[in-house]
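Methods, example record. To illustrate the input and output format used throughout this study, we show the complete record for GPI-anchor transamidase. The sequence lines were provided to the predictor; the line carrying structure tokens was produced by it.
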Amino acid sequence: MKSSSSMSFTFLLISVVMLSRADGNSTEERNQQQIGTFFKKGHTNNWAVLVCTSRFWFNYRHVANVLSIYRSVKRLGIPDSRIILMLADDMACNSRNPSPATIFNNREQAINVYGDDVEVDYRNYDVTVESFIRLLTGRVPENTPTSKRLQTDEHSNILVYMTGHGGEGFLKFQDSKELTSVELADAFEQMWQMRRYHEVLYIVDSCHSESMFLTFYSPNILAISSSRVDEDSLSHHGDSRIGVYVIDRYTFYVLQFLERVRPDSLVSMHEFFKVCPKSQCISTVATRKNLFQRDVKEAQLTDFFGGVRNIELTYDLIDLPQSAIRA
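The corresponding predicted structure is encoded as:
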């Protein structure tokens, strides 16, 4: 049904506010202040780089870790086009897997985190220290497809999640190479110099994982580890049908927390930092906040885990043609 009378629509994104034009300049000043407040966060898009660095069947849990985080960030609004997923081995099709094409993160096997819509960008021997550093810094080969590029800018918030085996100052890649904490710190500094991020949330679930961010020196980075420098990070539980552990402790409790978060949630990073106290993790979750320029109580979890949509604010009346109006 079409309307027979001309209509005007005022598009006010974020909230609908009735403003009187009788105030003249004072109204205009309030409008500009509202717009300035909206854009003060300085970021317009979110990305996620999710990395499993392990190989071999007995490291099944590390693949389950990263696929579980992948599932969570997608549910909270980050599309596959802005997620880079790196899996060092394909557990779903491993000959030892009693349920081919599945990966479970719980012995109840309620959720197949491999699912039907997983887009793996770097697989098997493509997951290397070199490819990871090149991805972060944008120095990928010219023939690299868009899906394997981190196309971020100075308005991008980036979640970097890594899981695998680590030691003091390094993470193993493919059980043969090592990414050192110094290499990672320098990569983030290059990203900052090249304006490839606005803020970074770095999460690492491995033994001695605090050591991976003690060398960071670039601004606007929040960091969380599942263990202190001198601690191991432990598995949560195994599945006797599969014959291996299926998830690590820290990631298990992170997922419990994330399942209660909605895309429009106001949960802060301060609350997220409380996930997995030592009574649950056994290891000690460590954080680093001194490089971050905002109060973590004001920074929202969805600033990193959620989707961000570009919008345009206007206070002008827009006359739509009659043909565009539908009842």
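Annotations derived from this record:
Residues 8-38+312-324 form one domain.
The first helix runs from residue 25 to 38.
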